[in-house]
Amino acid sequence: MALEPGVSCGVCLRCKEGRYNLCPDMVFAATPPNDGTLCKYYALPADLCYKLPDNVSTKSGAVVEPLAVAVHITVRQGGVKQGDNVVIFGAGPVGLLCCAVARTYGARTVVVVDINQQRVNFAINYAATRGIIAENGKDVEQVAKDMIEECELGRGADVAIDASGAERSIQTAIHVLRPGGTFVQGGMGKPDIQFPITAMCTKELNVKGSFRYGPGDYDLAIQLLGTGKVSVKDLMTHQFAFADAEKAFEVVKAADGIKVIIEGPSDVAHDI
Q: Does the predicted model carry a pTM greater than 0.85?
Protein backbone atom coordinates (compact mmCIF):
# COMPACT_ATOMS: atom_id res chain seq x y z
CA MET A 1 0.00 0.00 0.00
CA ALA A 2 0.93 3.64 -0.47
CA LEU A 3 -0.50 6.05 2.09
CA GLU A 4 -1.41 9.72 1.88
CA PRO A 5 -0.09 11.09 5.19
CA GLY A 6 -2.57 13.96 5.47
CA VAL A 7 -6.19 13.91 6.62
CA SER A 8 -8.36 16.88 5.68
CA CYS A 9 -11.61 17.86 7.39
CA GLY A 10 -13.78 17.05 4.35
CA VAL A 11 -16.38 19.71 5.12
CA CYS A 12 -14.73 23.12 4.57
CA LEU A 13 -15.14 25.05 1.31
CA ARG A 14 -11.67 24.08 0.03
CA CYS A 15 -12.41 20.40 0.63
CA LYS A 16 -15.86 20.71 -0.97
CA GLU A 17 -14.40 22.27 -4.10
CA GLY A 18 -11.85 19.45 -4.44
CA ARG A 19 -8.77 21.29 -3.18
CA TYR A 20 -8.35 19.37 0.04
CA ASN A 21 -4.60 20.10 0.13
CA LEU A 22 -5.59 23.66 1.08
CA CYS A 23 -7.80 22.57 3.99
CA PRO A 24 -7.11 24.87 6.97
CA ASP A 25 -7.65 21.96 9.37
CA MET A 26 -5.40 19.46 7.58
CA VAL A 27 -3.68 17.01 9.93
CA PHE A 28 -0.46 16.14 8.14
CA ALA A 29 2.00 13.60 9.52
CA ALA A 30 5.27 15.01 10.91
CA THR A 31 4.02 18.59 10.47
CA PRO A 32 3.99 20.23 13.92
CA PRO A 33 2.10 19.78 16.13
CA ASN A 34 1.34 16.37 14.58
CA ASP A 35 3.55 13.32 15.05
CA GLY A 36 4.99 11.39 12.10
CA THR A 37 4.67 7.77 11.00
CA LEU A 38 7.60 6.17 12.84
CA CYS A 39 5.43 3.75 14.75
CA LYS A 40 4.39 0.12 14.48
CA TYR A 41 0.85 0.93 13.33
CA TYR A 42 -0.48 4.05 11.62
CA ALA A 43 -4.23 4.44 11.06
CA LEU A 44 -5.71 6.30 8.10
CA PRO A 45 -9.13 6.51 6.42
CA ALA A 46 -9.50 3.90 3.67
CA ASP A 47 -9.70 6.50 0.90
CA LEU A 48 -6.14 7.58 1.70
CA CYS A 49 -4.77 4.05 1.23
CA TYR A 50 -3.80 3.00 -2.31
CA LYS A 51 -3.12 -0.54 -3.47
CA LEU A 52 0.15 -0.78 -5.35
CA PRO A 53 0.43 -2.70 -8.64
CA ASP A 54 2.03 -6.13 -8.28
CA ASN A 55 5.20 -4.89 -9.99
CA VAL A 56 5.71 -1.99 -7.55
CA SER A 57 7.40 -2.83 -4.24
CA THR A 58 6.49 -1.18 -0.96
CA LYS A 59 9.97 0.34 -1.05
CA SER A 60 9.10 2.14 -4.29
CA GLY A 61 5.64 2.81 -2.86
CA ALA A 62 7.28 4.83 -0.09
CA VAL A 63 8.33 7.35 -2.75
CA VAL A 64 4.79 7.83 -4.08
CA GLU A 65 4.35 10.83 -1.78
CA PRO A 66 7.16 12.97 -3.28
CA LEU A 67 6.23 11.70 -6.74
CA ALA A 68 2.66 12.92 -6.17
CA VAL A 69 4.12 16.31 -5.16
CA ALA A 70 6.07 16.37 -8.45
CA VAL A 71 2.94 15.39 -10.40
CA HIS A 72 1.03 18.27 -8.81
CA ILE A 73 3.80 20.77 -9.55
CA THR A 74 4.57 19.63 -13.09
CA VAL A 75 1.26 18.45 -14.49
CA ARG A 76 -1.52 20.13 -12.50
CA GLN A 77 0.11 23.51 -11.88
CA GLY A 78 2.78 23.66 -14.58
CA GLY A 79 0.72 22.09 -17.36
CA VAL A 80 3.84 20.66 -19.01
CA LYS A 81 3.02 19.22 -22.42
CA GLN A 82 4.59 17.72 -25.53
CA GLY A 83 7.46 19.80 -26.92
CA ASP A 84 7.83 22.18 -23.94
CA ASN A 85 11.16 23.54 -22.75
CA VAL A 86 11.28 23.21 -18.97
CA VAL A 87 13.81 24.57 -16.48
CA ILE A 88 13.82 23.12 -12.96
CA PHE A 89 15.73 24.78 -10.12
CA GLY A 90 16.80 22.35 -7.40
CA ALA A 91 17.98 18.76 -7.86
CA GLY A 92 16.66 17.33 -4.63
CA PRO A 93 14.14 14.44 -4.66
CA VAL A 94 11.16 16.60 -5.71
CA GLY A 95 13.15 18.50 -8.35
CA LEU A 96 14.48 15.25 -9.80
CA LEU A 97 10.99 13.73 -9.89
CA CYS A 98 9.73 16.89 -11.62
CA CYS A 99 12.38 16.22 -14.28
CA ALA A 100 11.12 12.66 -14.71
CA VAL A 101 7.46 13.68 -14.90
CA ALA A 102 8.24 16.47 -17.39
CA ARG A 103 10.07 14.02 -19.64
CA THR A 104 7.18 11.56 -19.36
CA TYR A 105 4.76 14.28 -20.50
CA GLY A 106 6.84 15.00 -23.58
CA ALA A 107 9.04 17.94 -22.64
CA ARG A 108 11.63 18.50 -25.37
CA THR A 109 14.25 19.98 -23.06
CA VAL A 110 14.51 19.57 -19.30
CA VAL A 111 17.23 21.73 -17.76
CA VAL A 112 18.11 21.20 -14.10
CA VAL A 113 19.92 23.87 -12.09
CA ASP A 114 21.63 23.28 -8.74
CA ILE A 115 24.67 24.40 -6.73
CA ASN A 116 25.81 20.78 -6.20
CA GLN A 117 27.75 19.24 -9.11
CA GLN A 118 27.08 15.68 -7.95
CA ARG A 119 23.34 16.28 -7.94
CA VAL A 120 23.48 17.91 -11.38
CA ASN A 121 25.39 14.89 -12.70
CA PHE A 122 22.83 12.58 -11.11
CA ALA A 123 19.97 14.55 -12.69
CA ILE A 124 21.49 14.25 -16.18
CA ASN A 125 21.85 10.49 -15.79
CA TYR A 126 18.34 10.24 -14.34
CA ALA A 127 15.96 12.39 -16.38
CA ALA A 128 17.30 15.86 -17.24
CA THR A 129 18.59 16.64 -20.73
CA ARG A 130 20.89 19.45 -19.55
CA GLY A 131 22.49 20.41 -16.26
CA ILE A 132 23.75 23.79 -15.05
CA ILE A 133 25.63 24.79 -11.91
CA ALA A 134 24.01 27.85 -10.35
CA GLU A 135 26.23 30.94 -10.37
CA ASN A 136 26.09 33.29 -7.39
CA GLY A 137 28.31 36.08 -8.67
CA LYS A 138 26.48 37.16 -11.83
CA ASP A 139 23.38 39.30 -12.16
CA VAL A 140 20.33 37.02 -12.33
CA GLU A 141 19.11 38.52 -15.61
CA GLN A 142 22.47 37.78 -17.22
CA VAL A 143 22.45 34.26 -15.77
CA ALA A 144 19.02 33.72 -17.34
CA LYS A 145 20.17 35.10 -20.72
CA ASP A 146 23.23 32.82 -20.69
CA MET A 147 21.03 29.86 -19.80
CA ILE A 148 18.61 30.59 -22.64
CA GLU A 149 21.47 30.79 -25.13
CA GLU A 150 23.44 27.81 -23.83
CA CYS A 151 20.39 25.53 -23.68
CA GLU A 152 18.87 26.81 -26.94
CA LEU A 153 15.58 27.82 -25.33
CA GLY A 154 14.57 30.30 -28.04
CA ARG A 155 12.78 33.23 -26.43
CA GLY A 156 12.86 31.42 -23.12
CA ALA A 157 11.50 28.39 -21.29
CA ASP A 158 7.83 27.48 -21.52
CA VAL A 159 7.72 26.34 -17.89
CA ALA A 160 10.06 27.14 -14.99
CA ILE A 161 9.77 25.28 -11.70
CA ASP A 162 11.50 26.23 -8.48
CA ALA A 163 11.99 23.23 -6.21
CA SER A 164 14.71 24.89 -4.14
CA GLY A 165 13.14 27.85 -2.35
CA ALA A 166 16.30 29.88 -3.02
CA GLU A 167 15.72 33.57 -3.75
CA ARG A 168 18.19 33.75 -6.66
CA SER A 169 16.65 30.66 -8.23
CA ILE A 170 13.19 32.20 -8.10
CA GLN A 171 14.45 35.44 -9.62
CA THR A 172 16.36 33.61 -12.37
CA ALA A 173 13.32 31.46 -13.13
CA ILE A 174 11.18 34.54 -13.84
CA HIS A 175 13.82 35.93 -16.21
CA VAL A 176 14.41 32.61 -18.00
CA LEU A 177 10.77 32.28 -19.05
CA ARG A 178 9.43 33.29 -22.46
CA PRO A 179 6.55 35.79 -22.68
CA GLY A 180 3.38 34.02 -21.58
CA GLY A 181 5.32 31.25 -19.83
CA THR A 182 4.41 29.55 -16.57
CA PHE A 183 6.28 29.71 -13.27
CA VAL A 184 5.50 27.26 -10.46
CA GLN A 185 6.85 27.69 -6.94
CA GLY A 186 7.21 24.30 -5.32
CA GLY A 187 10.11 24.83 -2.92
CA MET A 188 9.83 26.46 0.48
CA GLY A 189 12.34 29.18 1.40
CA LYS A 190 12.35 32.54 3.16
CA PRO A 191 8.88 33.93 3.93
CA ASP A 192 9.65 37.12 1.97
CA ILE A 193 11.96 37.72 -1.00
CA GLN A 194 12.77 40.33 -3.62
CA PHE A 195 10.68 39.39 -6.65
CA PRO A 196 11.11 40.66 -10.27
CA ILE A 197 7.55 41.89 -10.59
CA THR A 198 8.19 44.05 -13.68
CA ALA A 199 9.46 41.08 -15.66
CA MET A 200 6.47 39.05 -14.50
CA CYS A 201 4.01 41.72 -15.62
CA THR A 202 5.59 42.72 -18.93
CA LYS A 203 5.90 39.09 -19.99
CA GLU A 204 2.39 38.35 -18.67
CA LEU A 205 3.56 35.23 -16.91
CA ASN A 206 1.35 32.65 -15.26
CA VAL A 207 2.66 32.51 -11.69
CA LYS A 208 1.42 29.67 -9.49
CA GLY A 209 2.09 28.22 -6.09
CA SER A 210 2.04 24.49 -5.46
CA PHE A 211 1.33 22.84 -2.11
CA ARG A 212 1.57 19.09 -1.63
CA TYR A 213 -0.91 17.31 -3.94
CA GLY A 214 -4.60 17.10 -4.69
CA PRO A 215 -7.27 14.74 -6.04
CA GLY A 216 -5.92 12.24 -8.54
CA ASP A 217 -2.24 13.00 -7.97
CA TYR A 218 -1.55 9.85 -5.95
CA ASP A 219 -3.40 7.73 -8.52
CA LEU A 220 -1.39 9.26 -11.36
CA ALA A 221 1.89 8.84 -9.48
CA ILE A 222 1.15 5.15 -8.89
CA GLN A 223 0.16 4.73 -12.54
CA LEU A 224 3.48 6.25 -13.67
CA LEU A 225 5.34 3.81 -11.43
CA GLY A 226 3.27 0.81 -12.45
CA THR A 227 3.72 1.42 -16.18
CA GLY A 228 7.43 2.05 -15.78
CA LYS A 229 7.18 5.58 -17.21
CA VAL A 230 8.84 6.89 -14.05
CA SER A 231 11.40 4.93 -12.03
CA VAL A 232 12.32 5.80 -8.44
CA LYS A 233 14.79 3.00 -7.71
CA ASP A 234 17.88 5.07 -8.49
CA LEU A 235 16.71 7.83 -6.16
CA MET A 236 16.81 5.56 -3.10
CA THR A 237 20.47 5.91 -2.19
CA HIS A 238 20.27 4.94 1.49
CA GLN A 239 18.20 2.47 3.50
CA PHE A 240 18.10 2.06 7.27
CA ALA A 241 16.50 -0.40 9.65
CA PHE A 242 13.63 0.94 11.74
CA ALA A 243 15.83 0.91 14.86
CA ASP A 244 18.36 3.12 13.06
CA ALA A 245 15.87 5.79 12.01
CA GLU A 246 17.87 8.52 13.76
CA LYS A 247 20.85 7.79 11.49
CA ALA A 248 18.59 8.26 8.48
CA PHE A 249 17.72 11.79 9.61
CA GLU A 250 21.41 12.56 10.07
CA VAL A 251 22.10 11.55 6.46
CA VAL A 252 19.26 13.77 5.24
CA LYS A 253 20.49 16.70 7.33
CA ALA A 254 23.97 16.31 5.81
CA ALA A 255 22.48 16.32 2.27
CA ASP A 256 24.26 13.03 1.62
CA GLY A 257 22.58 11.02 -1.13
CA ILE A 258 19.15 11.60 -2.65
CA LYS A 259 16.29 9.72 -0.97
CA VAL A 260 16.62 7.90 2.35
CA ILE A 261 14.32 4.97 3.14
CA ILE A 262 13.49 3.71 6.64
CA GLU A 263 12.28 0.11 6.83
CA GLY A 264 9.18 -0.80 8.80
CA PRO A 265 9.38 -2.50 12.22
CA SER A 266 10.91 -5.97 11.93
CA ASP A 267 7.89 -7.64 13.56
CA VAL A 268 5.46 -6.27 10.97
CA ALA A 269 5.20 -8.08 7.63
CA HIS A 270 6.45 -6.10 4.64
CA ASP A 271 7.97 -6.87 1.26
CA ILE A 272 10.77 -4.32 0.97
A: yes
CA distance 9 to 20: 8
Which CATH architecture does the domain made up of 69-209 adopt? 3-Layer(aba) Sandwich (3.40)
HSE, side-chain direction, 13 A CA sphere, residue 140: 16
Pair type for strands 130-133 and 49-50: unpaired
CB 108 within 8 Å of CB 100: no
Q: Tell me how far apart the alpha carbons of residues 96 and 70 are, in angstroms, rounded to a whole number.
A: 9
Quick count: other Cβ atoms within 10 Å of Cβ 66? 20
DSSP 8-state assignment for residue 229: S
Options 3.10.25.10, 3.90.70.10, 2.160.10.10, 3.90.180.10; CATH for 2-66+215-235 is 3.90.180.10
Per-residue pLDDT tens digits of the chain, which is 272 residues long: 899 999 999 999 999 999 999 999 999 999 999 999 898 899 999 999 999 999 999 999 999 999 999 999 999 999 999 999 999 999 999 999 999 999 999 999 999 999 999 999 999 999 999 999 998 888 999 999 999 999 999 999 999 999 999 999 999 999 999 999 999 999 999 999 999 999 999 999 999 999 999 999 999 999 999 999 999 999 999 999 999 999 999 999 988 889 999 998 876 555 44
Q: At what angle do helices 117-126 and 93-104 cross, to 10 degrees?
A: 30
Numbered ranges of CATH 3.90.180.10 in the chain: 2-66+215-235
Sequence-distant (6+) residues with CB within 8 A of 63 are 93, 232, 235, 236, 259
User: Torsions phi, psi of 233, nearest 5?
Assistant: -60, -40
Q: Where in the chain is the domain with CATH 3.40.50.720?
A: 69-209
